[in-house]
Amino acid sequence: MIFPVSLFDHYVGIDYSGAQTAEASLKGIRAYSATASSEPEEVLPLPGQRKYWSRRTLASWLLEQLLGEAATIVGIDHAFSFPTAYYERHSLPNEWSSFLDDFQSHCPTDEPNTCVDFVRKGRCGCWSKVTGEPSWLRLTEKWTASAKSAFLFDVQGAVAKSTYAGLPWLRYLRQRLDCKVHFWPFDGWEVPQGRSVVAEVYPSLWMKRFAVQKRTSDQHAAYSVSAWLRRVAMDGSLFQFLHPALHQQERTTAETEGWILGVI
User: Which end of the chain is more exposed for a tag (fewer CB within 10 A), N or C?
Assistant: First the structure.
């Protein structure tokens, strides 16, 4: 049964950052939330916490939201998986939870005082176990005009560091949410009725559609995700984005590699 998309209560957009450690307060992490009756508004850390989100406090906040009764759809802007070539190189089964477990065991960027660069430089983890080629693209990235490889570091617009920092936090959420939340499309293209959703997004697809006003680039990225999710849910077109026109082999590939919501 297809989830009636108009019944989402909250539409959350996350602009992510892979800088520094999981405890660092990062200006580049932004969260916006909208409802059916309200435009996106920025969500800030609780009083008493630091000025900006850290990856750890953001994960805790998302967990709280997704454990609640309100049906929520969350868009996060980093890759949720890697190309099938990565699975082949590292002899991994084509199964997302196993991939997340293996990745975190070698790149534990959710642990205290740990960052992506520490793993890259051999100070912790095992970089050789989580590497890929900068030329490798997932099928969903090939379907866009500008999405970059998740293995392309240190260039403008790259999502590699965010991805390497964010994947262990997806595992954190998945382990604690059990079957309460649908991680799309890994849990299937069909979303069960009443289930909250977490999906990969690419804010650049939509940022020019919404007036920037006084928002920073990071704020506007998160705002645009929240606003787009709200719009397509309200007008009924979200259904087509949850079911991109893929041939069977492409669909099978995407069930391993993941898919960017909005790419059809």
Answer: N
- Its domain, for residue 201, covers 5-257
200 vs 24, 136, 143, 179, CA distance in Å? Answer: 23, 18, 14, 18
- How many Å apart are CA 261 and CA 244, to the nearest integer? 9
Q: Does residue 263 belong to any structural domain of this protein?
A: no
Q: Does residue 138 contact residue 83 with C-beta atoms inside 8 Å?
A: yes
pLDDT in tens, 38-76: 999 999 998 878 899 999 999 999 999 999 999 999 999
Sheet order of strands, 196-200 included: 38-43, 30-35, 10-15, 72-76, 196-200, 181-183
Phi, psi for residue 35 in degrees, rounded to 5: -125, 175
- pLDDT less than 70: residues of the chain: 1-7
The Cα 189–Cα 192 span in angstroms is 10
Q: How many domains does the chain have?
A: 1
The verdict on residue 264 lying in a domain is no
Give pLDDT, residue 6: 55
